[in-house]
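Attaching the record inline, Q. Sequence:
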Amino acid sequence: MSASCPVDERVALEFTQRLMSTHGVPDSLFDEIRSFLGEDEIVELCTLVGYFVTVCWIMNVARTSSSEDVDVGVLRRAN
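Structure, as predicted:
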């Protein structure tokens, strides 16, 4: 992210990266993001991140292609 990035976007990105890499955030980062977002919005951000991570996991397990022109077939249930 460039130095010209708004502070609130930089903090949201740092929060998201830290959450995904360590499964938590330090108090100082939580306090910093709370100065831009309310606690309800922080919960919404965490929910959004969790949703997209879950979708990515499912797509990875199902071998879903990121390209429309690649036929990966249907995920079959193992017996």
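The two ends are 47 Å apart (CA to CA). Residues 7-61 form one domain.

More tomorrow.
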